[in-house]
Design a protein that fits this description.
Layout (H helix, E strand, L loop, with lengths): L1 E9 L4 E10 L2 E9 L8 E4 L1 E6 L8 H8 L4 E6 L2 H19 L5 E6 L17 H8 L4 E7 L2 H6 L2 H13 L3 E3 L6 H11 L9 E2 L5 H9 L3 E5 L7 H4 L10 E4 L5 H6 L2 H10 L4 H16 L14 E4 L7 E6 L2 E5 L2 E2 L24 E2 L6 E6 L6 E6 L2 E3 L2 E3 L6 E7 L8 E6 L7 E4 L8 E5 L2 H13 L3 E6 L2 E6 L11 H17 L7 H6 L9 E4 L2 E4 L4 E2 L5
Parallel strand pairs: 1-4, 5-6, 6-7, 7-8, 8-9, 10-11, 11-12, 18-23
Antiparallel strand pairs: 1-2, 2-3, 4-13, 13-14, 14-15, 15-16, 17-21, 18-19, 20-21, 22-23, 22-25, 24-25, 24-26, 26-27, 28-29, 29-30
Helix pairs in contact: 3-5, 6-7, 10-11
C-alpha cells in the first residue's frame, strides 16, 4: 500500500489539513487527518488538473506523447475532441486516438465529433453523418458530443444537426457548444437547443472573447470554459467571472502547440488566477472538480474509494507539481515524466501532386481592391479588409512593406487549383511558411513573400505528406507530421524542440505573431468570423457564405 502525506486541500469543504492518503490497486483506501492545520513546508495534495476542452492533434503529438508531457504539469486527464483527425480519416481516425490513448496511464475522454466536415464550403477527407455520430455515442469511451460548431444550423433547426444533438441526449451524454459572438436571444436559443434539461445536462461554450458575451451565455444556463491556448487567449477577458460563477467555469487550452505544452498546462492558469486575487478554492474547483462533475469522468477527487488521481504541489501560488499520480501510479516526479515513449503506427489521407510557382499567380481583377484577412494576435476571429496589393506584370504580388502577404489553401485530398487571397499582420519580410494543419479540413495553408518561396514551402509539406515548413532563401526546414498530416509519432520532447526551432526561424524571417503557425492554421477556420479562406475560396463567417473574389 502506498502512502502520501501533505496538506490535503478539501475543495468542497474549503479547508486544508495535514493528512495521510493510503492507496493501492488504483484507489484511495483511507484518508487520515494528522493535524487540523496545514503544516508549513509540507507539499499540498490536490486533485489532478483536467483540460476541459482540447484537440490533442494540435499539440502535433499522438495522445500517448501528449500524456508524457502533460503529466509533468499535474494534468491527469483531458476532455478531448478528436475532430481534427476525424476530418482527415473519419471513424478510423477517432478509433486511432482512443487506441493510442489506452497505451499510457492517462485519462483521455474523447467526444463524438459533431461537425465533420465543419461546413460544406471546404474539402475534407471524411464525413460523419447522424448514423456515424450515433454509433460513436454508444461507445463507453465516448463521453460527450463534441463542439457543435454549426451554430447557424442549430438556430435554423437543421434536421441533421438536431438529430445529432438528440442522439447525445438519448445516450445521456452532454453536448459541447461552439457559438462565437452569439449574444442575447440567439445565445438563449442556442443554449436551450444543446441542453438536455430533463437530464440536467447544460451545454458549454469555449469561444467567448468578451465578458459580456460569456455573461449572456451563463445567464442562459451554459457553462463557460476559459480558454488559453497557443493562439486563442481569452483568460484576461474572462477570469473575473470565476468570482461569481465558480460552479460554472472550467479551464481549457483548446489548441496547444508542443512547445507551449512542454512549458506548462492548466497549472499555469491556476497560478495566473491566484495572482489576480481569485479564491484558491474557486480556482481549483474550475481546474479540477467542475470538469469531472460535468462530464462524469472517472477521475478521483480525493475521497476514500476514488481513483488515486492526485498531484503534490510545492505551494498554492505557483502550483509547481512535485509528483503526479494517476490510478495510484507515479507518472511524473520533479519535472520529469515517467511514462515511457513507445512507437505509434501511422494513418493518413494525403493525395495531391507537387505544385509549381505558376499555380500561385493571382491575376489583377481591375477592381479598386481585394479582400484581405486581418489576422489578430491571440484571437481566432479576423477582420475583413479591402486593400490594394502591389501589381507586377498583370498579377497581384505580396507587399511586405505594408505587411500584405499572399495566402493560399491547397487541396491535399486531390489535385485542384489553389485558393488565393491576401492576409495582413503575419509580418514576414522574406520567404514563406506552410502547414498541413489548417482547421478544420486540414488542407495545406501557406503564407509567403513571393510565389517561389510559397511553392517551395507547400511542396515540402506535400513531400512529407504532412508537416509544418518554412523557406528562407536557401534555408529550408520542416517538422514532419506523418499521422494524418497532423501529428508526429516521434518523441514528444524532440518534436517540441523541432517546433521551437522552426517557430524561431519564421520569427527571424519577420513574423510578428506570438504563435505564427497556430494562427496560420486558423486562417482556414470558416466557422469563426469574419473572413477566412478554404480550398474552395473566400468565406464570410458572419453571413456563412462565399464572398466575391474582388472588393
Amino acid at each position: 500500500m502506498k502512502q502520501v502525506k501533505g496538506n490535503l486541500v478539501d475543495i468542497k469543504q474549503r479547508k486544508i489539513c495535514f493528512a495521510m492518503l493510503e492507496f493501492d490497486e488504483g484507489h484511495i483506501n483511507r484518508i487520515t487527518v494528522l493535524d487540523d492545520r496545514e503544516i508549513s513546508g509540507e507539499p499540498y495534495i490536490i486533485p489532478g488538473f483536467i483540460d476541459s476542452h482540447v484537440h490533442i492533434e494540435s499539440s502535433m503529438l499522438v495522445p500517448a506523447e501528449f500524456a508524457r508531457l502533460a503529466v509533468v504539469h499535474g494534468t491527469v486527464g483531458t476532455v478531448s475532441d478528436p475532430h481534427e483527425i476525424a476530418n482527415v480519416c473519419g471513424m478510423e481516425g477517432v478509433q486511432y486516438m482512443i487506441d493510442n490513448g489506452k497505451t499510457v496511464p492517462f485519462k483521455f475522454n474523447f467526444g463524438a465529433p459533431s461537425c465533420v466536415p465543419a461546413t460544406d464550403f471546404e474539402t475534407a477527407g471524411a464525413r460523419l453523418g447522424v448514423q456515424e455520430v450515433d454509433a460513436l455515442l454508444q461507445h463507453p469511451e465516448i463521453r460527450y458530443l463534441s463542439e457543435m460548431m454549426n451554430f447557424p444550423g442549430v438556430l435554423a433547426g437543421d434536421a441533421d444537426v438536431l438529430e445529432k444533438i438528440k442522439a447525445a441526449h438519448w445516450a445521456g451524454k452532454p453536448v459541447d457548444g461552439h457559438a462565437p459572438g452569439l449574444r442575447g436571444e440567439e445565445a438563449r436559443r442556442y443554449a436551450a437547443a444543446i441542453a438536455d434539461e430533463v437530464a440536467g445536462l447544460p451545454g458549454t461554450d469555449h469561444e467567448c472573447f468578451t465578458k459580456e458575451e460569456a455573461l449572456d451565455k451563463l445567464k442562459a444556463g451554459m457553462k463557460i470554459l476559459i480558454r488559453e491556448g497557443s493562439a486563442a487567449k481569452n483568460f484576461e477577458a474572462l477570469i473575473d467571472l470565476l468570482k461569481d460563477y465558480p460552479d460554472a467555469i472550467m479551464f481549457c487550452s483548446d489548441d496547444k502547440h508542443p512547445d507551449s505544452l512542454e512549458a506548462g498546462h492548466i497549472n499555469q492558469l491556476c497560478a495566473r488566477a491566484v495572482a489576480k486575487g481569485m479564491d484558491v478554492f474557486h480556482v481549483l474547483q474550475a481546474a479540477c472538480v467542475n470538469p469531472v462533475l460535468h462530464y462524469k469522468l472517472d477521475v478521483g477527487l480525493l475521497k476514500a474509494g476514488d481513483p488515486a488521481d492526485l498531484v503534490l504541489v510545492k505551494d498554492l501560488l505557483y502550483f509547481k507539481p512535485l509528483k503526479t499520480f494517476i490510478n495510484g501510479l507515479l507518472v511524473a516526479t520533479e519535472g520529469k515524466t515517467l511514462i515511457r515513449a513507445s512507437p505509434a503506427p501511422v494513418i493518413n489521407h494525403f493525395n495531391c501532386p507537387l505544385s509549381t510557382s505558376l499555380d500561385f499567380r493571382m491575376p489583377v481583377t481591375g477592381s479598386p481592391g481585394v479582400p484581405v484577412i486581418e489576422a489578430l494576435d491571440g484571437q481566432l476571429i479576423t477582420n475583413h479588409l479591402i486593400m490594394q496589393p502591389r501589381l507586377e506584370e498583370g498579377y497581384y504580388i505580396s507587399d511586405p512593406d505594408q505587411d500584405l502577404l499572399k495566402i493560399t489553401v491547397v487541396n491535399r485530398y486531390y489535385k485542384a487549383a489553389p485558393a488565393l487571397t491576401f492576409v495582413k499582420n503575419f509580418g514576414l519580410k522574406r520567404g514563406a511558411m506552410a502547414s498541413s494543419v489548417a482547421h478544420d479540413s486540414h488542407n495545406i495553408i501557406a503564407v509567403g513573400v513571393d510565389d517561389e518561396s510559397l511553392c517551395r514551402a507547400v511542396n515540402l509539406v506535400i513531400a512529407e505528406k504532412g508537416g509544418v515548413a518554412a523557406v528562407d532563401g536557401g534555408q529550408e526546414a520542416i517538422v514532419p507530421l506523418p499521422v494524418a498530416g497532423l501529428m508526429s509519432n516521434a518523441d514528444g520532447y524532440q518534436v517540441a524542440a523541432a517546433y521551437t526551432a522552426i517557430d524561431q526561424m519564421v520569427k527571424d524571417m519577420g513574423a510578428t505573431l506570438s504563435a505564427p503557425f497556430m494562427t496560420l492554421s486558423f486562417m482556414a477556420l470558416l466557422v469563426i468570423p469574419a473572413l477566412k479562406l478554404s480550398d474552395k475560396g473566400l468565406f464570410d463567417g458572419q453571413k456563412f457564405e462565399f464572398v466575391a473574389s474582388e472588393g
